[in-house]
Amino acid sequence: MSQTLQARRLITASQIIEWPTVSISSDGTIAGIEPDSAPRTANTTLASTFFDIHTHGGAGHDVMEATPEAFSKVSSFFAGHGVGQYLPTTVTASVDKTLASLEGIAREIERASTSAWDALHARPIGIHLEGPFISHAKRGVHPPADILPPDIGLFDRFQQAAVGHIRLITIAPEVPGALDLIHHCAERGIRVSIGHTNATAQEARAGIEAGGRSTTHTFNAMRPLEHREPGVLGVALDEEALYAELICDGVHVAPELVRLWLKAKGPHHAILVTDSMAAAGMPEGEYVLGTFAVKVANGRAFAADDLDQGKHTLAGSVLTLDRAVSNLQRFTGAPLEVASRLASRNPAILLGLGDLIDGMEPGRPANINIFNEAGELERTLLHGKAVC
Fold it and tell me: N or C: which end of the chain has fewer CB within 10 A?
């Protein structure tokens, strides 16, 4: 059944349309967009659905389970929070476990491209490999025994298991062999993000020259900023063309630094991610991130083993991307058109998928987020159908 949406504003990749009427065909695609000069009572804003390029799971499941049941739960949960597409993200584990997970995730990605996929579920469209090629000094909760030196041969095994679906990889550029692997990935169109790194400014710039294009959860798990050695963080904020992820939950990064990050990166190179794990959307308790236990309390996820030793190492988040967008507006005063871009178009452009993801134009799937007057997500349509 065809339908129409009327709103106060429509945010597209290139403009804001006032008082739009959006026609949606019975096949779930956008049939037309017409502006109207006559004001109406509608006070909503329409924009593209979100694209989360760094998430480990939610709704009680980790993506490394790599089963149809896990992906059904996770994808449904994400859709309920405005996400249309995402990159299931691995965490450092044994080589055998990583290979097995990549094979299973690849099957789900390929299933998501067929009619067998539920249209009301967010679609996994590639893989973010976070680890094992990271720094021991800034490993966070990644298991130290499974962290490995960068190795082109091993990466190629991972990509073969993933049937070519690895689109993004986190690498610490200062580790011996990293620059060769960064160059190898960049030559093949795989985007490299600098993260879990103790790199100096010089080492970070070498990683960028080799092909690095972004930083992973900026501020977290990286060398801190110093006035004589700005390190990787100083480069991340200063390098204009470099994209930079951020977990905007008010836990991982203080609001003052969220504002600094947005001022430095601007509306075109800042990216909102969740780094969510299985506990997102679930009650407090104990869950799994990859292969290790995580305890969640007071909105924070900690590595269980570290807690037992009196340490408080953050282990992913319980953030959802709609809340990240809302938080960004609240922390920085950024308008909705900027906040939503950071969670949709910017990550898509980083991955070379801008035309695929951000498609608010006739002929494209009607994947639409509907925001209320306060800039909060009110409803989501996937292929023209309302997500419950």
Answer: N
